[in-house]
Design goal:
Blueprint (H helix, E strand, L loop, with lengths): L27 H14 L1 H14 L1 H32 L3 E7 L1 H4 L9 H11 L4 E5 L7 H15 L3 E5 L2 H5 L4 H17 L3 E5 L9 H18 L2 E3 L22 H15 L5
Parallel strand pairs: 1-2, 1-3, 3-4, 4-5
Helix pairs in contact: 1-2, 1-3, 2-3, 5-10, 6-8, 8-9
Length: 273
Amino acid sequence: MGSSKPASNARRVDLPAPEGPTIAAVSPDFTWRFMLSRMVKSPSGLVTFLVSSFAVNRNSFWLMLYKYQVYKEWTLALSLVLVWAPGVLFAQETIVVVGDSLSSGYGVPVEKSWVAALADRLRAEGYGYQVINASIPGDTSAGGLARLPPLLEQHRPRILIIELGGNDGLRGQSVARLRDNLAAMIDLSREAGATVILAGMQIPPNYGETYTRAFSGVYPDLAQEFDIQLVDFLLDSVALDPTRMQSDGIHPNIEGHQGILENVWAVIAEQLE
């Protein structure tokens, strides 16, 4: 086989020299897009690119830095909106119930208490409220007052239901002290921006007419003084119906809790949005 030789008719073409540096013609938009791609791929690549860009074209370099700063600020703003906005736009209003065993569900399943039933009714009616049951069996107005500030701070309720005083009365405590404690709870709640609903209480007549009348009168007096909503008597249609009360004659059964719900709903429904 013979060796091949280059074509004898091959000619060399000489191109004219460029009139100026061609690399400086890179557009700012192209540079910006390229910078972002390098930034994502490698931080060290970004540093190298910035240095080389400054060496080639200072105007494009400063424009890139400006755009990069704007990009960072908008990215930060968007991140904050994505984190913060859902909590604001979709936050549920809160109802807090501060009570004793009548609200905590003593003697019945917790999900059958009138407070749990209130949460169910709100969902069924399409209201976007969450209900916090801050009730403790055996609590008094003094105990509720002591517990209230952290509850207001934590939950920031739009509506606060106060159901206290029954244990004060059963223990024969001072009516004046009961009134002062409830008044202080109303003040604190309103200062925190909550709408207050006061649940009226009564005690058995064997405590004497003078005491029982003074005790039950505290609730409508406070409601009038502070211009707040009042559930006249929480256990209305419940307390004197043996089929709605537990064997102790003090605490409502499941059916009784449904009766309490109806008493509360008649008042709270006017406050819902």
